[in-house]
Design a protein that fits this description.
Elements: H1 9-21, H2 35-55, H3 60-63, H4 76-81, H5 90-103, H6 107-115, H7 122-125, E1 133-134, E2 140-144, H8 149-154, H9 160-172, E3 181-184, H10 198-215, E4 219-223, H11 225-232, H12 238-241, E5 246-250, E6 253-260, H13 263-268, H14 273-289
Parallel strand pairs: 2-3, 2-4, 4-6
Antiparallel strand pairs: 1-3, 5-6
Helix pairs in contact: 5-10
C-alpha cells in the first residue's frame, strides 16, 4: 500500500480530487481504532473514583433533603423544548418556500431569501447555495439538474471538468457563460450526488420557478435527465426528451425550451456528443431567430 508520504504534492492533489469525485466526504485513520475497548478503559478508569465518592460521608444537611418527586421533575415536553427542534414538515416547508420566493422582487432578493431558508434538509449537508449566475438581461437561460461536488466546492453552477466541457459547448455556438444566465433546479447538492427526493423537489420548486419569473428569459436550454423531466412533466429518459422544442409555463408566460444531455453525461459517454451537437445547433438557430445571437 502506498503511503501518503511517498506521494508528490501533485500526486496527492490528484488522489484527493479522485476521492472527492467518487463522493468520499470523510477521511478515516489508516489503522482501525477499537472504540469499544477505549470506552471500557474509560469506564475502568472512572470506577475507583466513583467508589470513593460513594464511600465519602454524606453531610447532615444533604441527608435531610428529600429527593425530588416525579411531579417536581421537568416534564418530557419541557426537557425536549431545550434540545434540537424537530424538522419542519414537508408540507409546511413547501408553503414557506413559496411565500419566501413570491416575496422576492429581484434576483438579488431571491438569492438572499434562499440562503436564509432552512426548510430543506439538503441545505444542512451542502457547503454552498447554488444560485443563478451570469447575465439575466441576455434573455438566454441554461438550467441544470442539481449541483455537483465541484459546484458545491466552487459555489457556482457548471464547475469542474463538466464545466470546462460546457464552456467549449457554448463557444461552439458563439456564446460564453458570462453572456447567459446559468442555474440549477436544486440549489443544494444532495449528499453523495444522490437523486433529490420528491419532498426535496417540491420544496425547491418555488425557488427555480421564481428565478425564471424574475429573469424573464426568452429561451431556455435544459441540461440533464432530471431537469428535462422536471419542466416537461414526463418520465422519459433524456434521450427521449432531448432535441424537441416545448413550452414552459411560468408566471403566465410560455417560454420555448429544448432539452439536451448534461456535460457530465458526455464525459461518461462521449459517443453522445453528436446528439448534443445537434441540440446545440437547434438552440443556436432559435437564438438567431429571436435576435439573441448575432449571425
Amino acid at each position: 500500500m502506498i503511503s501518503a508520504q511517498d506521494l508528490s504534492p501533485a500526486e496527492l492533489a490528484a488522489l484527493l480530487h479522485f476521492h472527492a469525485d467518487a463522493g468520499v466526504e470523510w477521511l478515516l485513520e489508516e489503522e482501525a481504532i477499537d472504540r469499544f475497548a477505549e470506552f471500557e478503559a474509560m469506564k475502568a478508569a472512572r470506577r475507583p473514583a466513583a467508589q470513593a465518592q460513594q464511600e465519602r460521608p454524606v453531610p447532615a444537611e444533604r441527608q435531610a433533603s428529600p429527593r425530588p418527586t416525579a411531579a417536581a421533575r421537568p416534564a418530557p415536553a419541557e426537557r425536549a423544548a431545550s434540545g434540537p427542534q424537530p424538522a419542519i414538515p414537508d408540507g409546511e416547508a413547501v408553503q414557506q418556500a413559496r411565500f419566501v420566493a413570491e416575496a422576492a422582487r429581484s434576483l438579488g432578493e431571491l438569492k438572499t431569501a434562499i440562503e436564509g431558508f432552512n426548510g430543506c434538509n439538503l441545505k444542512h449537508s451542502a457547503r454552498s447555495t447554488i444560485f443563478a449566475d451570469g447575465d439575466a438581461a441576455s434573455g438566454i437561460m441554461v438550467i441544470g439538474s442539481a449541483p455537483s461536488a465541484e459546484d458545491d466546492r466552487e459555489g457556482t453552477p457548471f464547475s469542474g471538468k463538466s464545466g470546462q466541457l460546457f464552456d467549449k459547448m457554448l463557444a461552439a455556438i458563439g456564446l460564453t457563460r458570462s453572456a447567459i444566465l446559468l442555474t440549477q433546479v436544486i440549489p443544494w447538492r444532495p449528499p453523495g450526488n444522490r437523486p433529490a427526493s420528491q419532498a426535496e423537489v417540491d420544496i425547491c420548486r418555488p425557488f427555480i420557478e421564481r428565478q425564471i419569473a424574475l429573469a424573464e428569459p426568452k429561451v431556455i436550454l435544459l441540461l440533464g435527465n432530471f431537469s428535462a423531466r422536471f419542466f416537461f412533466g414526463e418520465n422519459d429518459t433524456i434521450h427521449g426528451l432531448r432535441g424537441r422544442w416545448k413550452e414552459i409555463a411560468v408566471a403566465e408566460h410560455a417560454i420555448p425550451a429544448i432539452a439536451s444531455l448534461h456535460p457530465q453525461d458526455l464525459l461518461t459517454a462521449p459517443v453522445n456528443k453528436r446528439l448534443a451537437w445537434n441540440d446545440l445547433l437547434a438552440f443556436q438557430a432559435k437564438l438567431k431567430s429571436l435576435s439573441l445571437l448575432r449571425n
